[in-house]
Amino acid sequence: MRTKRLAPLLATVGLMATALPGLGATPASAAQTPEYLRQKPAWHRCSPDRPAAYECATLKVPLDYQRPEGRKLDLAISRMKSENPAKRRGVLLLNPGGPGTPGLFRPMRANAEMAKDVRDRYDLIGFDPRGVGESSPIGCGGLKPEEKGDGGAYRPETFAADVAWARGVADKCREKSGDVIPYITTRNTARDMDVIRTVLGERTISYLGYSYGTYLGAVYSQMFPQRTDRFVLDSGVDPERVWRGMMQVWSTGAEPAFARWTRWAAERSETYGLGATPEAVSATFWALVARADREPFLHQGEKVTGDSIRSDPSLYFSPRAASVVIRGMKASADKAPQPAGGGEPAAKAPLGTVRGAGPRADEPAPSSAPGATEVDVPSDNADAAHWAVVCGDTDNWPRDPAQYARDAERDKAQHPLYGDFASNIKPCAFWQRPLEAATPMKTRAAVLTVQNEWDPMTPLASGEGMHRALIGSRMVLARGAEGHGAYLSNPTACVNITVDAYLSTGRLPAADVTCENPPPAPDPEGSGTR
Fold first, then answer.
1. Cβ neighbours of residue 418 under 8 Å, at least 6 residues apart?
2. What is the pLDDT averaged over residues 396-408?
């Protein structure tokens, strides 16, 4: 939503008339404006091997906005300025997802992929959220590989070990970064965004956020509605599900994707050999899971169990990929008996969601990102920041371990593909209590939400939940489209037209939009319809 033009008197006051991020006070003079709002970014070339137009700077923001004169955190920001001042509207902040994902590099990618008419209108602004990458990164003392991830399958005989894992991660994070972790939250990151707006001299900001970035953008729109201009929220996180419910929607959302895959594979039974009917394909899958539970087998050098086959429900959102993987596993299982050793299955499911970096998983890691400096980023920074936000945004995590066991048993029965993984115990059961309540979605937000129908990390039900929660929003749905992240996912993505028009003109569609991407390339291994 674009703010109304201020009266000439207020325009001359400029930043002095800007309410403080998170505090709501309006200073009467520059002398009363906190120092962190009066800082000027010292822009410099991010890296000699990157374009000169890609610039970086570091701001200082309060650790605790209730004590703004206290301890500060670094906030690494980047920009690529509009090359057409006559068309420039303002700044477009970018967030690729997370929580725990750096975003300093995003202006380079957006600069290369955006339509020129859109690109001309904005300075592109990237930033590493607080606690992430180059922005005062936090850690948990070096989590071991088996300690990382979102947790494993539920089994009564291993639940005590699951509880020990969850407690151990929480204890390590608290011991290493306990003085900072309570302030690594979505609400504080939204406040940081408003500091960026202020020090850049902008009255409003526009925004493009993917995955977790949709929730961050939604929170900003509620905390700072008068400073919210053109917001695009792609691959929506349902505010009503934050955060335990977002993990659980991976299991409920996977069920229709699994059914779709069985139909797809059955139509190509001669190619993949998984069954001639959806029921037969499903039977093949569950027989493979049961067999791997009884007798783990080697596949591509790794030991496969039934739990490891179930540990990635996102696979079934791409029927072609699922068919290739399950066919390969079945072939490995059908071979002569193999040694029981030769590798171990992943102890924990990988961090998900909302950690996915928008539509692209090939973004550079923090230590190799364009513009990386001498900041020492802990090896477990992604996990530390992930849990800080997921556990610290809301107080809806059960504190009784037995509740997780009951929920996991129930959800495995109802959603056997992933239900027990999603509801099993997490470090949040032992996390410190949040300092703030979650942000209610009560204020009108004329933003554009964007969604692929078959998004594995923020399933359609989640994207619809975000659209429903944000009063005044519009949604553009790519019917039949697969993948996490729709806008700019490829040059022919059907959502690009609607998003480009909104970012260029500020006009939302009169009603929700449904479009379809061009037909996919034929299956190289067989024929049949999608």
1. 250, 251, 254, 310, 311, 313
2. 98
